[in-house]
Amino acid sequence: MLDSSDNVKDIKLSLLERLKSIDKKDIEKYNVVLLPDFFVDHFLSMDKFYYEIPKLKKIYNQGGGNIPEIKQKIQYGGNAVNTAITLSKLGIKTHIICRTDKFGLYLLKYFIGKNCINIDNVKIDGKLAITTALEFGEKHVNVMLNDNGSVSDFGFESLNDKDLDKISQSDMVCVTNWSLNKKGTNLAKNVFNYAKKYQVKTFFDTGDPQHRKNDISNLKKEVLNNLNLDVLSINENELKHYSNLSSLKNKNDVIESANNFSKKISARLDLHTSDFSYSTKKEKIIVPTLNLGKIYRSTGSGDTWNAGDIFSDLLDFKDEQRLFFSNLIAGMYISLENPYDINLKNIIDFLEKL
Hints:
about 350 residues, 10-stranded mixed sheet
């Protein structure tokens, strides 16, 4: 196993050289399809949890009322859309396949703005999905309340010939948010089977399986153990569930569990945690995350990490460069007051000053 904790500086310099060598034309030739989730995210920034709960309880007990001056914002969400927008900022051509309603499509167009994302395959005969995220304290620990809308039943039968053509012509297809999609196993299995007929790379991010523990066994059988899956991206919480463990107490526990789990699947396992990332390809590699200071947000960092993983995979970065790059842009996302200008130029500038 290669632990890169002691040679981070060397990886940084090699990554910087690699990024500077990229020609815009090298990026624009790639097409990535992402499905099936688009959410509108409503964030409420609150004080520490144990300060806020008594306030809420008091308002409830008095029969209702108001808590003033709670900072709030509305933005795009959903693993597929979050990842697509970051990939687009990096220069990759991205294509969204999802189901919403007319208002949802209007909002999606607004959120996408000038980013070059293809939404021709967005269906508007469904229901808008909405998440309200309560973020507590300086670390922005979140509690998310979901109305899953049409994300909840998006299966392979939801795809038409136009969608399948788009997948067959892509370089990678990514299925996300299995955890909120009752037909997620059906979707992932059949999309990956179809993609492999056309030599398309496959990428899977299941989301938190906490409330679908009874479905994990079938997911493993139908998707995670399937030879048609190329990359499985998870965090340590998801690893805990797939390893059937009650807890992972420290870094060594996480690494041991990841090693054992990776032996049971044919896909490359890409694990991201707050302290390090880990990958199994030709050899097992660990790259530490970067301490970048103040944290402005937590929701969406995993999607940003995935975008970095996909980008550097397509451009055939060395494994340690791929993990460092993914850690870097995820770190930028949570530590920059305005993270929405993450592009190659800004990443290079940030890396040079690091």
